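Try it yourself: sequence plus phosphoric acid mono(formamide)ester, in.
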Amino acid sequence: MLVPKKLTNKDFLSSSDLTREEIINILGLAKLFKNNSLDIDLKNKVLGLIFNKSSTRTRVSFQVAMSRLGCSTVDLDPKTSQIGRGETIKDTARVLSRYCDVLAIRTFNHSDLEDYAKWSSKPIINALTDLEHPCQALADFLTIKEEFEDFNNIKLTFIGDGNNVAHSLILCGSILGVEVCIACPKGFEPKSSILQKANEINGKNIKITDDLDDAVNGANVLYTDVWSSMGEENNKEDKDKFFSGFTINTDLINKASKDVIVLHCLPAYRGKEICDEVIESKNSRIFDQAENRMHVQQALLYSLLS
Ligand code: CP
Ligand code: NVA
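Structure, out:
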């Protein structure tokens, strides 16, 4: 029987906070939760949610995951709590971690998340920052594992902005030994600090290119995300111009491996980074991927709270 591993790190701020064994264990537990083969009651532990940016999937999947573990959540609206009036992270984190057993935080600056982790006595989970989206990457690799059984000889091509989602895919992919190719226009590459980290983990497997044909050739997974992330609304029109030609469409699917699946973390802008027909195609696993957010987070919470 699979049991949760005690995680090496107190917090889950980055995909690189988990070891390969810990990721594989969480994916295994997630699959058991998904198949209803695990019924765990953690006896009313409490997850605090602090979301400084919009969310549908992350917020609801955390809430339902906690409820399925016999636990509950408190969703703190930054606008109506003292957070929105400027109470310091150092005070907020010390107080909330005396009430809650774990906190999931979505915010802009990654350093704010690190500050929460520094001052909180309880685990902090990254529910998305400008730098990373590690819970998303866990769901993505569960979806890939469901399709291909293991991660051997898998080429994952991410087409789009070298953003938070790309960063977590690069790090999680490096840990799992997956070949990750990022296809982006020049100037929109992933951050060098992330590439350096990935290099230290397993550099051979990461490639950055602006050549779409090369990126798609042999790809088993095509992945995209919005061209303009939350917080970049003012640059949207400029970015749309730079990314023109980087849309996942049927032509591109036909150039990839025959068994290719398509992923998107959602929300999607149809006609921009991805065509409607691709989202609705037989290659799409986008809604399984969204469902998997809940199962991996349930497994993560089980590991952090037991
Ligand atoms: N993929 C994702 O994080 O979705 P939400 O912004 O809806 O949480
Ligand atoms: N890169 C996107 C992901 C949304 C889930 C953003 O940060 O807005």
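One thing you can check immediately is this: The chain has a mean pLDDT of 97.
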